Amino acid sequence: xxxxxxxxxxxxxxxxxxxxxxxxxxxxxxxxxxxxxxxxxxxxxxxxxxxxxxxxxxxxxxxxxxxxxxxxxxxxxxxxxxxxxxxxxxxxxxxxxxxxxxxxxxxxxxxxxxxxxxxxxxxxxxxxxxxxxxxxxxxxxxxxxxxxxxxxxxxxxxxxxxxxxxxxxxxxxxxxxxxxxxxxxxxxxxxxxxxxxxxxxxxxxxxxxxxxxxxxxxxxxxxxxxxxxxxxxxxxxxxxxxxxxxxxxxxxxxxxxxxxxxxxxxxxxxxxxxxxxxxxxxxxxxxxxxxxxxxxxxxxxxxxxxxxxxxxxxxxxxxxxxxxxxxxxx
Amino acid sequence: xxxxxxxxxxxxxxxxxxxxxxxxxxxxxxxxxxxxxxxxxxxxxxxxxxxxxxxxxxxxxxxxxxxxxxxxxxxxxxxxxxxxxxxxxxxxxxxxxxxxxxxxxxxxxxxxxxxxxxxxxxxxxxxxxxxxxxxxxxxxxxxxxxxxxxxxxxxxxxxxxxxxxxxxxxxxxxxxxxxxxxxxxxxxxxxxxxxxxxxxxxxxxxxxxxxxxxxxxxxxxxxxxxxxxxxxxxxxxxxxxxxxxxxxxxxxxxxxxxxxxxxxxxxxxxxxxxxxxxxxxxxxxxxxxxxxxxxxxxxxxxxxxxxxxxxxxxxxxxxxxxxxxxxxxx
Lengths: 330, 330
Description:
- The structure is a homodimer.
- Chain A contains 10 helices and 11 strands.
- Chain A is α+β, with helices and mostly antiparallel strands.
- Chain A folds into 2 domains: about 5-140, CATH 3.30.1330.10; about 155-315, Phosphoribosyl-aminoimidazole Synthetase, Chain A, domain 2 (Alpha-Beta Complex), CATH 3.90.650.
- Chain A starts with a helix and ends in a 16-residue tail after the last strand.
- The first copy, chain A, has a 6-stranded mixed β-sheet, with helices on both faces.
- Chain A has helices at about 5-15, 60-75, 95-110, 165-175, 185-195, 200-210, 225-235, 250-255, 260-270, 285-295; strands at about 30, 35-45, 80-90, 115-125, 130-135, 155-160, 215-220, 235-240, 275-280, 300-305, 310-315.
- In chain A, about 35% of the residues lie in helices and about 25% in strands.
- At the A-B interface, strand 1, strand 2, strand 3, strand 4 and strand 5 of A face strand 1, strand 2, strand 3, strand 4 and strand 5 of B.
- Strand 2 (about 35-45) of chain A pairs antiparallel with strand 1 (about 30) of chain B, so a sheet runs across the interface.
């Protein structure tokens, strides 16, 4: 299989470019006509570091690579535009496997209105995907950064937490080397899907931006770590009420089986790709309505922004929860 | 060394972003304010596939990764804007090595007016660099694609050919496993520099675009192969006069020592990163003047565009030169 043959075959399979892209893949560069401002982010996934091929189909890996990259655009409140993909192909992934990867990406691209506008394919010792995504807004100040949170703002999170980490626990327990595999039910399927088939909260991110979010970040490393990034960038402190955290269904049961605390799992486990945002308190009600209406996802107030620094997670009993390292991929 | 610590150290070393980039690296995404249209390209370099760490310093590898990506923007006639970098770091490259890579990139960024606006760092089994570059123009039609060449156009090339391939021959002959190393003189140094320290022809590309180039491509795979891409994209034939090819100084000598034909070396060897362009004949003189004035590089007419298809390279004796595969990296 030559590099050019594979590139040609992949290009033929690509969905047609969107109206913003007068020239897609195949020339020296793709041509786009942006709106007034762009938000651009790049993410890499490497086999054995960010995913395991025995846990995910090629289609799921391709979909996850694009979804994870787009999650950063969701956290800016951007309208998704174009994606550019580098695929590093090991010798044990054949041409059909590459096409499946592309199909997974194309599915997420279609779901989100993203144009797969260009890419490069190369040999590599391990399957590697590097995805650059470009999002749009009318003006630079329409994007929501991590740095605008102010004391008094409410702290909110979209959707549910701990699902991806619980899915990882289930996958680790059901690996072929472990004969003590638990039966996998529909709740478990949902948790595993959160791990291997994440989706970016693009509509929720845009709704939060329009509703006046002052700062936003996506939860890739875990609530504890990402909350710290937001606090540091904004120069504020975050106070989180652990009892308010919206745990995904099944997290409590899976954590218990694994001998873990469910709240710690939700706080320290990564890859939920929910959005954490700060909002002036008077914007909370309209934001909640807008997020639910535009994205079908719930918005939960989990705490507040305070003067100072750092992240404090208060337990129902009165103590503090320490975000600890969690055995996550990536 | 944690991923966050390295990212932080790298960000502190980055040159400040240009005026088009109100928010650089460090948030969920970088924010840019593009001109009217963008050209975006992505390129990956993998150790053992596109370069060898024993032949290049970390600084040279970083510089080459950005230069090679920018070469695609040169071939569009774009003004360079932003670069986004994925760095896959193997266990035997330490933090200082990563900083040297970054220094090499920063040098090319400064030389070309490119902002290093974002990136991602991950572990990887082999040193991997994926670089996305964004170039700008007022309007989409200001960019020069591969597909506009018309019969009757003149075919021109910038600079000199065969240098990078000859540099590779020199590196292969001087590898530690070969005791028959030739003495390396200043001419050899120049050829090796073409291989390990290429620079994009950005100013020449913009001059050619402004002078009315109808089609353009950069020579990464070799004149023979890249000429075929241009011919196919434009739906035309290319007739090249082999005697007119501007060989880099030393190519004849190095090829002879290696038992190769110098013209074949120039035609089949890749990585010269010169520009091949089609121009209406009446634009040839002003384009030559503009390219020399704006970039200090010569422009050579090497053939013409004809109706039909394919690439014909005519030898001085009257025969045809077949572009054959050359043992190039990448």
